[in-house]
Specification:
A hairpin with a 5-residue loop joins strand 5 and strand 6. The chain has 226 residues and is an alpha+beta fold. The strands form 4 sheets. Strands 1, 2, 3, 4, 7, 10, 11 and 14 form an 8-stranded antiparallel beta sheet that branches. Helix 3 runs antiparallel to helix 4. The chain has one domain. Helix content is 23%, strand content 36%. The chain is globular and about 60 Å long.
């Protein structure tokens, strides 16, 4: 995927363009225990929650190609029946609606992701009705030959908010603030299948690292995918 193709998909994570169908999350603590799972229609959430997830998903499509965003081809062994591509393809075909497949994916992440703290696994399914383009590169929204169906995944570290004093309007005084567990921006993520030449390519995916891959602590997640 090139910069323009990434930007085209990134635009889908906004209220005006949203065609996200289903959101699934799994909260994992520092002892690798699954503490919580959710599976719901994306638009069943509040507007505020949708905006927060939009921010997370757009972050997974942010950065420089070749540095934060890596185009990856599945090796032949990964496309075998029990290969890494198979579970992603199954998640896609089932539109994140099969509990057994989701459980298998979460277990694979938990077994391989090297993280000492808590984190949130996010998976979202979406559709993009690809508009045609004129000879002068203008989009034709009433002309489409393909729907790009995709899964975007993100792993977000979960940290305890800082202690502090919070102003209480009713009592007109500052009191100790309740500390919450907060999901931060993702450390790593992926888009499958790739949006290559403005079309679906199930033999590739786009991998995201918040820092350059060579120095990333998220290599274990990369190796889980490949």
């Amino acid at each position: 995927m090139n910069k323009k193709e990434v930007a085209e998909i990134k635009k889908q994570f906004s209220p005006q363009n949203c065609a996200l169908t289903r959101l699934c999350t799994c909260y994992v603590d520092g002892e690798k225990n699954r503490k919580m799972e959710t599976r719901e229609a994306f638009l069943s959430q509040s507007e505020e929650e949708c905006f927060k997830y939009f921010e997370i998903f757009r972050k997974c499509l942010t950065g420089s190609i070749g540095k934060n965003l890596i185009n990856l081809d599945f090796p032949l062994q990964a496309e075998a029946r029990d290969g890494q591509q198979a579970i992603l393809l199954q998640l896609l075909q089932e539109k994140l609606k099969n509990d057994d497949t989701l459980e298998a994916f979460y277990n694979r992440v938990i077994e391989t992701y090297d993280c000492s703290g808590s984190y949130l696994i996010c998976l979202v399914h979406g559709n993009y009705d690809i508009p045609g383009k004129t000879s002068d590169n203008q989009e034709q929204f009433d002309s489409s030959d393909e729907v790009y169906e995709y899964i975007l995944g993100a792993i977000c570290p979960v940290n305890l908010s800082k202690a502090g004093l919070s102003y209480q309007e009713k009592d007109r005084r500052f009191v100790s603030r309740i500390r919450d567990w907060l999901a931060d921006m993702p450390m790593t993520g992926f888009l499958f299948p790739a949006f290559e030449d403005r079309s679906t390519d199930i033999h590739k995916l786009l991998y995201y690292c918040h820092v350059k891959y060579e120095t990333s602590p998220c290599k274990s997640f990369f190796h889980m995918l490949f």
